UniProtKB/TrEMBL annotation, chain A:
It is an enzyme of class 2 (transferase). It comes from the Bacteria. One of its GO terms (cellular component) is plasma membrane. The lineage of its organism: Bacteria, Bacillati, Bacillota, Bacilli, Bacillales. The keyword Membrane applies. InterPro entries: PTS_EIIB-like_sf (IPR036095), PTS_EIIB_2 (IPR013011), PTS_EIIB_2/3 (IPR003501), PTS_EIIB_mannitol (IPR029503), PTS_EIIC (IPR003352), PTS_EIIC_2 (IPR013014), PTS_IIC_mtl (IPR004718), Sugar_PTS (IPR050893). This is PTS system mannitol-specific EIICB component. The chain crosses the membrane at residues 36-55, 67-85, 91-123, 144-166, 172-192, 225-246, 258-276, 283-304, 324-346. GO terms for molecular function: protein-N(PI)-phosphohistidine-mannitol phosphotransferase system transmembrane transporter activity; protein-phosphocysteine-sugar phosphotransferase activity. The phosphoenolpyruvate-dependent sugar phosphotransferase system (sugar PTS), a major carbohydrate active transport system, catalyzes the phosphorylation of incoming sugar substrates concomitantly with their translocation across the cell membrane. The enzyme II CmtAB PTS system is involved in D-mannitol transport. Its EC number is 2.7.1.197. PANTHER family: MANNITOL PERMEASE IIC COMPONENT (PTHR30181), PTS SYSTEM MANNITOL-SPECIFIC EIICBA COMPONENT (PTHR30181:SF2).
From TrEMBL, chain B:
It comes from the Bacteria. Keywords: Cytoplasm, Kinase, Phosphoprotein, Phosphotransferase system, Transferase, Transport. This is Ascorbate-specific PTS system EIIA component. Pfam families: PTS_EIIA_2. InterPro entries: Ascorbate-PTS_EIIA_comp, PTrfase/Anion_transptr, PTS_EIIA_type-2_dom. GO terms for molecular function: kinase activity. Residues 3-145 form the PTS EIIA type-2 domain.
Length: 479, 146
């Protein structure tokens, strides 16, 4: 029920913390989802052409590195910036991200998802501060140079900030893994592995730590569990399966494709965006990884070399004789565990949405009640102030949706034979001060409140047939 | 009046990759006829980015529009696009009917809006309208409510 709205009264409490968290989650999703296609393109390319791919091709494999280092983070940063401040935000976001990318030397997804919106925010603030102050004829030069100069500064800032951050993250991950290996309880490694993978430190941990450890062990015993601790394709499979079944809309539709590239192609990066969309699912990944390692341990199995890329096929190809049952069990168990936990997380998410609708409808009925009281008390105190004679519909431009709302509302009043009420449409800021009620779309409520703090504001989500408008008509009819 | 304005401005497509594309595709007839400039198309998209998807005026139906500043609108007009598969606007609002509105000034288009509103509140007409698959059908239905 997305059209559950509240008759919002003046000085309404701010949205609940949960609503804000949800909005933030939606923001992450909207930043990642439009770019999934690029991830898939890159995934296919990589699965096919890298030296350990299906049809190795040295020439075409040259695209792999730059795509994941530059293209994908830039796309994310651009989308993030655009969501904050339109095309100008997109440009700022990407300018900032390139500093980050070059400064870090590894694919900077998370960083790009921070710097993109940040860039958008900077230019939005700037644009706001100079609004209406630029002399005519100078708009173009101010527009271009503001992005130019602010972008230049952001580029340098992100370049210098990111290097040390990545270095310390690397150091932390390396020492944490070493101390965990020393405990001898390997499933704990997932606590570091899974977050580090999402942050694109997977090569650091695999090739820097686990493969050397694995090779030592292989020399002695002919196989090693260390090759499996961070490369198990099971957890990612479970996560993507859960998204395929319980995900929402676009995430649900793209997940099956991602499964093929991840599980069969071994390109784990394909599931990273889904975790970034719903950060809580990292719990599922950790639990999946842990149970995988536990099973490998239990069966005392390992691989003979580092499976790169980590697809089910390279797993099977590198499994020594007699280890097949254990290796397959480890992958399957990991997938099942991460599937179950991701499903629960996705389900809870849906439930939270429903609850939110539920609470907002409670709020609505409460505010309706208090509104009723208000009308009642004001009519007792001052009978004349009770009459509603001017209702103003407002929107951003004051030409389109507000006009639609006002026109439709007038027609409805006519049908009910309610006369003597002026219904007009305006730009939010131009709505006359003597309006009795201002009607805006719920997305524009904040802005309307800025200009009309003392007015009764009704929010709607449907310009033709909104319960709040129906309610208003009922009230008017009773008079 | 709406029916006249929509002549040759009605399009049907299977799908659009993004809501931004959907707005662009829906605005194409107006752009080609010189009613609006490229800038206005960007302004409409920007409007959603800044103010949210409030242009989705009723579930499934969007009315992309923006303020006419810097001469983005040269001549008042309206165009129509219907998608077989809905496209998702922000906040996961799915839309498969788009009316692109270009208003030259604050008043010239109000009759268009009024006709559109008559259509949207007429439940019988809307049932037919949602089924319609050709320009002739669309225009006939609108004429019936004008």
């Amino acid at each position: 029920m997305s059209n559950a709205t509240a008759i919002t009264e003046v000085k309404n409490p701010s949205p609940s913390a949960r609503a804000r968290i949800q909005a933030f989650g939606g923001f992450l999703t909207n930043m990642v989802l439009p770019n999934i296609g690029a991830f898939i393109a890159w995934g296919i390319l990589t699965a096919l052409f890298i030296p350990t791919g299906w049809i190795p091709n040295e020439k075409l494999a040259e695209i792999v590195g730059p795509s994941i280092t530059y293209l994908l983070p830039l796309l994310l940063a651009g989308t993030g910036g655009r969501m904050i401040a339109g095309q100008r935000g997109a440009i700022m976001g990407m300018i900032g991200a390139i500093g980050l990318i070059v400064g870090s030397g590894i694919p900077m997804f998370l960083g790009a998802m921070i710097i993109g919106p940040l860039g958008g925010w900077v230019i939005k603030k700037f644009d706001k501060s100079i609004e209406n102050k630029v002399p005519a004829g100078f708009e173009m030069i101010v527009n271009n140079f503001s992005i130019g100069i602010l972008g230049f500064l952001l580029m340098i800032l992100s370049f210098y900030v990111i290097g040390p951050v990545i270095e310390s993250a690397n150091n932390f991950v390396t020492s944490a893994i070493k101390s965990l290996v020393a405990t001898g309880f390997l499933p704990l490694l997932s606590l570091i592995n899974e977050p580090a993978k999402i942050l694109f430190l997977n090569n650091v941990i695999d090739q820097g730590i686990y493969y050397p450890l694995g090779m030592q062990e292989t020399l002695k015993e002919g196989k090693s569990i260390f090759f499996t601790v961070a490369s198990n394709p099971g957890p990612g499979l479970g996560l993507l399966l859960a998204f395929s079944v319980f995900g929402k809309k676009a995430a649900k539709r793209t997940a099956p494709g991602a499964i093929i590239i991840h599980f069969l192609g071994g390109i784990h990066e394909l599931y990273f965006p889904y975790v970034l969309m719903k950060p809580l699912t990292i719990i599922a990944m950790i639990a999946g990884g842990m149970s995988g390692i536990t099973v490998f341990n239990l069966f005392n199995v390992g691989l003979v070399a580092g499976p790169s890329p980590g697809s089910i096929f390279s797993y099977l190809a590198l499994t020594p004789k007699g280890n097949f049952l254990g290796v397959i069990a480890g992958v399957v168990v990991a997938a099942v565990v991460s599937f179950v936990i991701t499903s629960i997380i996705l389900k809870l998410d849906k439930k939270a949405d429903e609850e939110e609708d539920f609470t907002s409808s409670i709020e609505k009925s409460k505010s309706m009640k208090s509104e009723g009281k208000q009308i009642l008390s004001s009519s007792l105190v001052n009978p004349t102030s009770n009459t509603i004679s001017k209702i103003s519909f407002a929107c951003d431009a004051g030409v389109g949706s507000s006009a639609m709302g006002a026109t439709t509302f007038r027609k409805r009043l006519q049908k009910k034979n309610i006369n003597g009420i002026e219904v007009k449409h305006y730009r939010i800021e131009d709505a006359p001060k003597d309006s009795d009620i201002i009607v805006v779309h719920k997305d524009l409520y904040e802005r309307a409140r800025l200009s009309h703090n003392d007015k009764k504001i009704i929010t709607i989500s449907n310009y033709i047939d909104d319960p709040n408008l129906a309610q208003l008509i009922n009230e008017l009819e009773e008079k | 009046m709406l029916s006249q304005y929509l002549k040759n401005n009605v399009h049907f497509l299977n799908s659009a990759p993004t809501w931004e594309e959907a707005i662009k595709l829906a605005a194409e007839p107006l752009l080609n006829k010189g009613n609006i400039t490229e800038k206005y198309v960007q302004d409409m998209i920007q409007n959603v980015n800044v103010n949210g998807p409030y242009i989705v005026i009723v579930p499934g139906i969007a009315m992309p529009h923006a303020q006419n500043h810097d001469g983005g609108v040269l001549k008042t007009g309206i165009s129509f696009l219907k998608l077989k598969e809905p496209v998702f606007f922000p906040e996961e609002k799915d839309v498969n009917i788009l009316f692109v509105l270009a208003a030259e000034d604050a008043t010239g288009h109000l009759e268009l809006i009024s006709d559109l509103s008559s259509l949207l509140i007429d439940e019988d007409a809307m049932v037919k309208f949602k089924e319609a698959s050709s320009e002739t059908e669309i225009i006939e239905i609108i004429e019936s409510v004008e």
